[in-house]
Predict the 3D structure of the following.
Amino acid sequence: MVFFVFLALLACTSISDANRETTLRCLDCTEFKVTRVIDGDTLDTAKGRVRLFGVNTPELGERCASEATHRLQQLAGDSVRLEDGPRLTDQFGRILAYSYFTEDGASIDETLIREGLATAWTRDGQHRDLLVNLEREARMQGVGCLW
């Protein structure tokens, strides 16, 4: 009996991992190979250096920075899908884009916020309001290492 309960829990965990629960999705966004993760909100791709548009993570050396960087490495894997924000580049010439998993189109930006590893970018962006609300929920629940 215990064995069957264990199998059922394992199956549920695998299903929830495969079907990420994010509101934002983009299956038709262009896919790009990831060549390197720089920090929790920046990665190098075949398109160029990408700064995730919807989030801000701690800088290297700050509390929670290593967790955010490690998690972005896990989430991005070998490739990501990218969706342009209202501005295409930042003042450093990095590409600004929302990021998504390649296999199911779920939002990496949203996942980082839900897990308490990133704050929402509040100045602009087509997904700003949703991400700000998700940050508020994560903060109230004390999720992750930021709060």
